[in-house]
Amino acid sequence: MRGFSQLSPTERRLLLEVFWARTSARSDLAGRLDFSKSKINAAITDLIGAGLITEIGPRPSSGGRRAEGLRVTLRDGLIAGVDIRATHMDIALLSPDMSVMARHCEPISVRGEPEPLFARLRDVLDLLLRQLGQERERIRMIGIGVPGPVDFESACLATPPLMPLWEGFSPRQALAADFDVPIFVDNDVNILALGTLWHLSRSADDFLVVKVATGIGCGIICRGQVYRGVDGAAGDVGHICIDPNGPVCHCGNVGCVEAMAAAPAIARAGAAAARSGESPRLLELLQAHGALSPEDVGLASREGDPAANAIIRGAGADVGRMLATLVNFFNPSHVFICGGVATIGPAFLASIRQSVYQRSLALSTRHLAIRPIPHPADAGIVGAGVLGFLEAI
Amino acid sequence: MRGFSQLSPTERRLLLEVFWARTSARSDLAGRLDFSKSKINAAITDLIGAGLITEIGPRPSSGGRRAEGLRVTLRDGLIAGVDIRATHMDIALLSPDMSVMARHCEPISVRGEPEPLFARLRDVLDLLLRQLGQERERIRMIGIGVPGPVDFESACLATPPLMPLWEGFSPRQALAADFDVPIFVDNDVNILALGTLWHLSRSADDFLVVKVATGIGCGIICRGQVYRGVDGAAGDVGHICIDPNGPVCHCGNVGCVEAMAAAPAIARAGAAAARSGESPRLLELLQAHGALSPEDVGLASREGDPAANAIIRGAGADVGRMLATLVNFFNPSHVFICGGVATIGPAFLASIRQSVYQRSLALSTRHLAIRPIPHPADAGIVGAGVLGFLEAI
């Protein structure tokens, strides 16, 4: 599948429009793209000739007439979407409409060298291809999300705090010998933001996806596109100061939201409540598991443990204070919350909301929705697939 | 000058490109816009026919050959740029290349009713037209900046804290009977951001313009355009909390940056230092002027008064802490500082810089420049003119 770079601007805009719409009626496209009918028809003919889109036969259009549908096929191609998280790797082969054709998830650690992990990734891709009875050549593009900062142009990891051995590593190069297709790499929250944009069918243009897990990060969708900032560092919100008298963070500053409300801080606060005698239930869980996880604190909270509840409410309020600042500045339509900590109990999201509505300006919260990410299980792989497609064409 | 709405997308893109470039060689445009030469030439012919652009004769092109230059003329039209600030109104008639043809600035108060002020604005526009020997019909569009939140679609003021009598007032309607042209209204910081974008010739795409005066506000340029957010409230950063143990703000929350570092807070801190005996110099200025202004505190600071210096450094550090958050989130290339407080002394900007570099992530500040706005005296009227042009076409 060569030739993406040879697409004309008109063909590229048309291909994008058909991609986002999943299925497009020929007659709708001219209006949506503000092209003449003859120009659209010429571009459609070219894209069909190149095998990038196909006609899917007559279907009822909104006006009651029958119109020819179009969808992206990439000559019966597949897109590989890879979501590498701190503890798991989720790998999927997707059709160009982001349907999952084959998928595999397995536990990993990103603390070690990246090379063995990418050898395994190659094997899993081959395995998934075999499940579908397909060859490597069927994959048209690969999108990869990683839990650390990425230099987007070079696709290399840039001083990733969770995975120091990945410094300067290029996932693109690691796969290039086996997969001679466009490969793009981005950080996990940008991938989640793209997956959410897909799941919303672009019905929202300006929103944030905030992940609260071992760290805290934010993906920014601005005017329907991922916004990465001038150095690719936009959305790196974990070290925003929410309390100048707060605890010291590993970054050297004080009061970073990550030091106060991410998973390690919640686990630490839980252990302190257990050891101080404040929470017998947390002590029980600590003794049973050897160490406390945020999930343990969430469990105790849902069982009604007051200390656990206070910890979760405090963490939610802290994240909410950081978000109130972002809401005042960015005035998004939605803030989607995800990540391991987001699911430990309803009190967490409730406290975030309370804190944001208390601290943000009335005008900025008039239409603001704060809610869990729509498809948490699929947003990563789908977002990786969307990244692969958008950047390749 | 009717017919902006009848421009085709191609003509609109071409007109925009020629506008931003000030002068464009015909031969450069096809490449920059990715249009075919024949398409460009047809659009140029149409725009010349409509009187929107004109040929300015052969000029040396970069390749040594001679090319026809193009520039926007709007049929020898003028653009009115109006910058209404809390204490002054600055009014200019601009040519389409944003040269100031005539200009008038006078003191006003926005605390009163807006109608008399707009009657005066009409008179000033007529006066400036007479200076140029022109009629009202020569004005093609009007852009207006106001020191309060604007509902951009309706061009009405929305709960403006400085000017309660303007609630729901429409500057557009107030001028429509006398000037039958497109009129657009935006808040002062968005206007300053547009003026700065013009002065930078779009050499930066993602930057912030922060005004520190009676209040604190921020204009956001994202991908070369003003970003207003979903409710037009983006950049309303004055009530970002920088200290949960800080003073109570008039908005009801605590620790808002505006309550700690805007002009009234600096004046208050100066008066306290004067009355406590901490600063004899500030007491002298207080007695001489009846009340202390931020400029008085700046004067004392430049004379070496330690208390005044500490006040200014503290305010700069507070603004810097707020900006560190925005820099982590948005990763801009520049933060431009302006407004009355910005010019009270070099210590203010120095403290902002120190605070941002200490608190922001290394990756986000790698290429970050924090500096005064490039053309403070003209950014408002030029930005208002740019707004008028961009929104009208």
Automatic annotation (TrEMBL), chains A, B:
Indicate the family of this protein.
Belongs to the ROK (NagC/XylR) family.
Keywords in alphabetical order, please.
Kinase, Transferase
Q: Which domain of life is it from?
A: Bacteria
- State the SUPFAM superfamilies in the record: Actin-like ATPase domain, Winged helix' DNA-binding domain
The name on file for this protein is: Sugar kinase of the NBD/HSP70 family, may contain an N-terminal HTH domain
**Gene3D superfamilies recorded for this chain?**
3.30.420.40, Winged helix-like DNA-binding domain superfamily/Winged helix DNA-binding domain
Q: What is the organism of origin for this protein?
A: Afifella marina DSM 2698
Q: Which GO terms describe its molecular function?
A: kinase activity
